Amino acid sequence: MKLNVPNGALSKASIINYGQGAIWKNISASFSYDDSPDEVISALNTLTEGIDLIEGKGFAEVSSYGDSSITYDLWYKVMPEKAIFVAPELKFRLYYLTKRYGFTVPYPIAVEYTVDAKLGVPSRIPQVVENRQEELVTYLRSLPYFSKLNDNQIEKLAQRAKFKAYGKGELIVQEGKKDEGLYIICKGRVQAYLKDEQGNRKIVDELELNEAFGEMAIFPGEVSPVTAVANEEVEVVVIRDQEIIEAIESNHKFATEILQYIEERKKMVRVAKGIKDETSKLTSNNGQRVRVR
């Protein structure tokens, strides 16, 4: 049976495409042989987080081995009409991911290295590592909530802390996932939010320069109650949970400062959830408590 539909009727109709649905797309990136494939793939797998246009989880894999680099493909599923928006966003995020993890992009084509011929050719080509240790110590000393720590304690925190860069729209921490440590904003602005039962975003706080988040990392087994997203180009200092716990246990005044800060953040989360504020002890949601000597 043949059905003829007048053009006039078609022009007024809403046409829905019930075709093949989401399709697989990919972007590629190349990194040095000095960067472990396990570490690169793990990092690339986080690149799609927080992009609502991507359906399900993507995956990264090694695509090929070149003369000076390994090429990786990041695969993701997206509706055909949305693909044009997703690829530029992923490429934008790739720049910040490279900075965060310190991966080496094989560019420029030729690099001159100074090597002592008497010692032979090194098995690993030396990379230029940016040393920001002194800057990190100075920055931590300037923060009011670290004023209770002495110079040795500050330097110990700085030894294992690191700077991390994020682009606008990237997720820094996720609600329901374990925090990497305490994050301190040294550039840009961050929005902390949670989602209600209907999936609507409830803003908990707008965080600015020198403010911190990720504080639940100090409680064993606890997860983040909020998602933190970069509102613009952001750089944070990340201090691992174990270093913060050791500082709390060795300095009672610092412990009081940081735990009071955590209580304030808990109150803000309760307000966002519409829960009546009640006086609570300095414990995590699972009842565990940080020991303070």
In which order are the strands of the major sheet placed?
Answer: 4-11-6-9
In total, how many domains does the architecture comprise? 2
Terminal Cα span: 85 Å
Which term fits the overall shape? Answer: flat
| DSSP helical segment count | 7
Architecture (CATH level 2) name of the largest domain: Sandwich
Helix content: 25-40%
Derived from helix and strand composition plus strand pairing, the structural class reads: alpha+beta
For this structure, the CATH topology of the largest domain is Jelly Rolls
Strand content: 15-25%
Total DSSP E strands: 11
Describe the structure.
The structure is a single chain. 29% of the residues lie in helices and 24% in strands. By secondary structure, it is of the alpha+beta class. It has two domains: 24-101, Alpha-Beta Plaits (2-Layer Sandwich), CATH 3.30.70.100; 133-273, Sandwich (Jelly Rolls). The strands form three sheets. A four-stranded antiparallel beta sheet has the order 4-11-6-9. Strands 5-10-7-8 form a four-stranded antiparallel beta sheet, with helices on one face. Strands 1-3-2 form a three-stranded antiparallel beta sheet, covered by helices on one side. The chain is flat and about 85 Å long. The model is unreliable at 279-293 (pLDDT under 50).
Please give the structural blueprint:
Blueprint (H helix, E strand, L loop, with lengths): L6 H6 L10 E9 L5 H8 L9 E12 L4 E9 L4 H19 L31 H10 L8 H10 L1 E5 L4 E3 L7 E7 L2 E6 L5 E7 L4 E2 L13 E4 L3 E7 H10 L1 H22 L20
Helix pairs in contact: 4-5, 6-7
